[in-house]
Amino acid sequence: MCGIFGIVTDSESVPDRARLDASMQSLVHRGPNSQKIHAGPGAGFAHTRLSFVDVDARSDQPFWDVSARYALIFNGEIYNYRQLRAQLESEGVVFRTTSDTEVLLQMLLHRDPDTAIRALEGMFAFALFDSADRSLLMARDRFGMKPLFIQQVGEAFLFGSEVKAFAPWTAPSVDRFMVASYLQGFRGPTSGFTFLDDVTSVPPGQIVVKRPGSAPQFHAFARLEDFLTPAAIDEYAALSSTQIVDHMEQLLSDSVEAHLLADVPVGAFCSGGVDSSLLMGIAARRHNNLAIFHADVQGPFSELGAAAALSKHLKLDLKAVSVTEREFIDLLPRAIRHFEQPLADRPNCVPMMQVACLARDSGVKGLLSGEGSDECFLGYPWLGRKALTDGYYALGGKLRSGVRAVPGVGDLLWPVPEGNVDLVRSLFNRREVVDDAERVAAAVAALGPAIKSEGHRWTLDYLHHHLRILLHRNDTMGMAGSIESRFPFLDHAVVRAAVNMPTEYKLRRDWRALDKSHPFTRDKWVVREVAKRYMPPELSQRPKFGFWTNVFQRTRIDPRYFHDSSIASLLGLTNTQMDATLASADHSFQQRLLHLDLWGRACVDVEPEDASVARLREFVSIKAL
Predict the structure, then answer these.
(1) Does any domain span residue 56?
(2) Which of this chain's residues are annotated to bind L-glutamine (predicted)?
(3) Where does residue 178 fall: left (phi above 0), alpha (psi -120 to 50 degrees), or beta otherwise?
(4) CA distances from 525 to 244, 274, 377, 388, 546 (A)
(5) Measured CA distances, 308 to 270, 305, 353, 533 (Å)
(6) Set 2, 270, 357, 376: catalytic member
(7) What are the pLDDT digits (tens) for 95-128?
(8) pLDDT digits (tens, 9 = 90+) for 448-506
């Protein structure tokens, strides 16, 4: 895990080292172990390293080949690098290090790009620079675990792990279309456009080639819909329940083993939920000194009891950090500065950032995370009650159609909603979610009418924009504490199984399942069945919480907060107009305004954190429970 930055120009001029250093310093939290700069004709690179494999300085970056023609600037981990190295060595390739960085470089030099990148099992964002023609080959992993941003600034082309690294070279300009989409409920961009004009987030699963004097060229090396195949659907449909559980246990065991691979300590997030608990249970059978960490959200939603019960069962020492309600507010400027987007519907960013700092201070560099399980195995409560709600909305639809069919008065009694709000929001965010959904629907439809399970589509839908938001949260909040998050549930074999298995192994009717959010339905059934083999039922069957808090719902914002504010300036509103807007807005919209303003202060105006915190303490309070 690292921070990367690069600038390549059309001329032979050497990029300014002072600005390269400034870009590097903005990424030090991503790589506190070593930092290096390269400045040469037409190209400059900065790299900050959080070293996991071959921690020797010989594997520092930019990493050049022996001819000094090619340089690799790489962020991520390649979990199957030993197998790939063995293949290359059998072909006569000689290695100078034991790092996955050098394996990636040699793969790119000895295979065509698509073949090389498709062979990678892991998370990555990288750029390969050819000094002979000053071209760049860039790519981002298929799930979007690692970020990669690019921007053209005059004759200069920039790339980096975070947009703040671009600040020494260009001033940020707000994309007002994206702001409008966000204010209408969009959760935030994760692929393509961003909140800033002309800054692009490289889409997951894509390769980008940039040559001097030409616009970057994009093409996909993989799509998540590729996991869905008729052969795999038939394969999993033929298995019994016991065989499915055995198979999933083996896949997860193999994945956990691969994700623990490192030359430094790797621990685990211990949220108290079944996903992280299962990963810890599997890991604990292989490593009796696994370090586990918990964020104890103070109040009625604390999961410390469940985390402590699990640690006792597994005979592991639990380290916990307390997160108070006030910290959810006071730490928002810091969290948003790292997240580089507003956070309105993601309050758990703060506890994730806090537990990452705890792990760092305890000498751990990486943590296993249960992220991806809910998406793969349909763990969201509303999916468990979807049949009921779909029936309710279908009944309402029939009633609405019946009323509108009454001649002459139907449209008056039940008028058609105007405004096309959903369509407008989709246009403002450049159809990111809609296009994903249409590709998934087309992939499922291509299976033919004989395969009717909606579960395939639901899983693929959640593995797109929804998961990308969560992975961005994990990356940025972990890196705020110099911690790498690792995701065993997103191992390719695990995802392939999840996408193709029958829905009944994810959502299963069970009269004993009394979860009030989806009564008589057991979510993530196969995951919970595997978990039963590692922990008692009271832990394997726990409902989902996920560092939950309702502090955002209980905040009260004094209208004076927005006087002469970043958001008022962006929207072109006077203080009186902002007062009226806040008075008319519901609580959810007030939160979106607050978080948008905090983003503007942190990421556009670059206001000092203590000034933002002081303003919050003066004008934002929390209503008591």
Answers:
(1) yes
(2) 100
(3) alpha
(4) 11, 11, 8, 19, 18
(5) 9, 5, 20, 19
(6) 2
(7) 999 999 999 999 999 999 999 999 999 999 999 9
(8) 887 767 889 999 999 999 999 999 999 999 999 999 999 999 999 999 999 999 999 99
Residue 122, marked binder = no
Is residue 198 annotated as involved in ligand binding? no
- CATH number of the domain within which 517 lies: 3.40.50.620
Phi, psi of 74 (to 5 degrees): -135, 135
* pLDDT at residue 267 in the model: 95
Residue 447 inside a domain? The answer is no
Tell me, yes or no, whether 135 and 29 share the same domain: yes
Which of helix, strand or coil describes residue 562? helix
Domain co-membership, 136 together with 268 = no
CATH number of the CATH domain containing 97: 3.60.20.10
**Structural domain of residue 611, as residue ranges?**
552-622
251 lies in the same domain as 165: no
- For residue range 502-519, what is the model confidence (pLDDT) as tens digits? 999 999 876 565 565 556
Q: Do 281 and 163 have their domain in common?
A: no
Residues 138 and 238 in one domain: no
Same domain, 44 and 106: yes
- Please answer whether residues 594 and 329 qualify as being in contact, where contact means their C-beta atoms are separated by less than 8 angstroms: no
Please give the Cα distance from 14 to 550 (Å, whole number): 51
Structurally, the chain folds into a number of domains equal to 3
Annotated catalytic residue 349? no
Q: How many CA atoms lie within 13 A of 40 on its CB side?
A: 12
Q: 290 and 316 in contact (C-beta within 8 Å)?
A: yes
List of residues 6+ apart from 475 with CB closer than 8 A? 145, 146, 147, 485
pLDDT-derived band at 407 (thresholds 50, 70, 90) equals confident
Same domain, 92 and 208: yes
